[in-house]
Amino acid sequence: MPPPGPDFDAIWKETLMGFLPECLGRVHSTLAERIDRSRKVRFLDKELREMLGSSPRPRRHVDFLAEVPLTGVGLQTMLTHVEVQRDKVARFADRMLFYHAALVRRFRQPVMSLAILEDPDPNWRPTELTSGIDGVGTRFEFPICKLADFTDAELESDPNPVNLVILAERLTRRHRKDPVARREGKLALFRRMAVLLESKRYSQEQRLVLTRVLDWSIPLPEAEEEIFLEQLRRQEGDTPMTYLTTFERHALRKGLEQGLEQGLERGRQEGRQEGRQEGRQDGVRLGWVEALKALVLARFPDWKPAWNRHLESVNNAELLQDWLKLAAASPSGAAFLKSIGKRPR
Question: Residue 56's pLDDT is what?
Answer without folding.
Answer: 47
